[in-house]
Amino acid sequence: MENPRFIVVEGPIGVGKSTLARRLAETFDSELLLEGADENPFLERFYQNPKQAALPTQLFFLMQRVRQMNELRQGDMFSPVRVSDFLMDKDRLFAQLTLDDDELQLYDQVYQSTTVDTLVPDLVIYLQAPIDVLLTRIAKRGIGYERQIDSSYLQRLSDAYTGFFYHYSDAPLLIVNASEIDLVNNQSDYQMLLEHIALVRSGRHYLNPMPVAL
Asked: Where ATP is bound, by residue (predicted)?
């Protein structure tokens, strides 16, 4: 079956969305858009002092994502598949978590004026995993500023993602329980995901593999 032309992989910090997006881009030999967290000069300051650095951190990410979407729109429209590890619509999710009321009002003004023609994906893959799994994966990848992420922040973020995607209906949605599978190093797990991708054309779908008993 024909693959979706624009695939977005989403989920909370540590769930593996960027790694999966890279593998999908390799599989489909496609253009890849990744969140440039390492390009944000305010991010480390945010994890050290969230209240003080939240607004510039959020605005930098917003403008970065808007630029990437514009570049994607102006790129090769005949590219068979494009893969991204961020959904433009979720940007406000982080803003609601980190900004106070006045900051959020300012952010909303910028957001509404810059995201008028956002591209809608043909498929969104939403990866889920428990908080302890996320913390383990964050620790394993060893990014310095991420060591300051605590379980309470991750829980609020994970809950926000759950609420966001509970109401999401702009594109076909595949919700994947990523806690018991390895979509990067296990070929059978990855092949199972590809088979689901080929079948999803509308609505909401679930991939919830159970661990194999030894």
From this structure: 11-19, 137-141
